[in-house]
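Show me any protein, keeping tokens residue-aligned.
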Amino acid sequence: MIESDPLVIGSEGSEQRIRRVLLLNFLLLPALIIGYQFFVRPALFGPGVVDIHAATAESGGFTPAYVQVQVGQTVRLRFSPSDMPHGIAIGPGLGVSLPPVTLGLWNEVALRFDKAGRYTYACTTWCSPNHWRMRGTIDVVDPANPQPVVERDAVIDALTAEGVDIDAALHEPQLLRVELAAQPSAARGAALAAALTIPPDLRDESTRQRITPMLALDLLAAANPGAAAADLTDVVAYLWTDTRADLTTAAVIYATNCAYCHGPSGGGDGFQAATLAVQPTAFADAGVMFLRRGDVLYAKIRRGGMGTDMPNFGVLFTPDETWALVRYLWSLTFARSGA
């Protein structure tokens, strides 16, 4: 018969055994967690699996909100909502847009980065008043070049060199607008343009990006004395609206990121507009947009608006995507197919 020592509370032997059990549990549990995280799960799901939980900004936002990977490493990001469905976009230039999923489900994407840089994952579902705080960072590092060159934005640098303050009151539409005799129409302007003298600079998109439609109207008036102001306004609308551009992707970007505040049609009447500290721009108001510069719109999108609720989208959009979005804003102003 095998005899075992009874467990007697308070005895020296039992206390030692309890200590050994507690110590074993204290060491074993973390070891099992670490082993699963870094050995078992990568073997099952592939290298670099990161689980990210999404909650409203008021409840903590993304956890974790920072991920670091190395150049050439494949990382699988798995997003799961912890309070309500959250859509996820990852950029810039990655084209990743994950639809919202219900609680208990996962959205995942595998990414491989070929160069060092900083990327952002963000919520695309308006989930709370502080929705735009829901952002996380993916830091891609290159051990061979631990201090990569920071890429500057040539458009923003040019505005700085020119002395343009993109946050000045001049660029706040609720403070300044021009009264126009009629709503400009790009369609009417297209029919009128052939009969008018159009200064060569106005035919160059890069020039149009750096001036306001109001200045263009003055240049047209000087080149076409006696022309009706309404006709010249329509021609400006035509010049500022690129009918050849495919704005499908830009329309999706606008609907996903801008319409909440600026309104589906650019009326400045999005369902969150009334909650903002500064009234959002009404892109459909030609009186407002006639005083706006395309490069300033570009800079505001990329850097955000200081003193307003406008977040910076330069961490999500590429420069080309930003310019496409600016073209889409002008289409809201001048109705590409409008009468």
Summary: The chain has two domains: 49-141, 154-334.
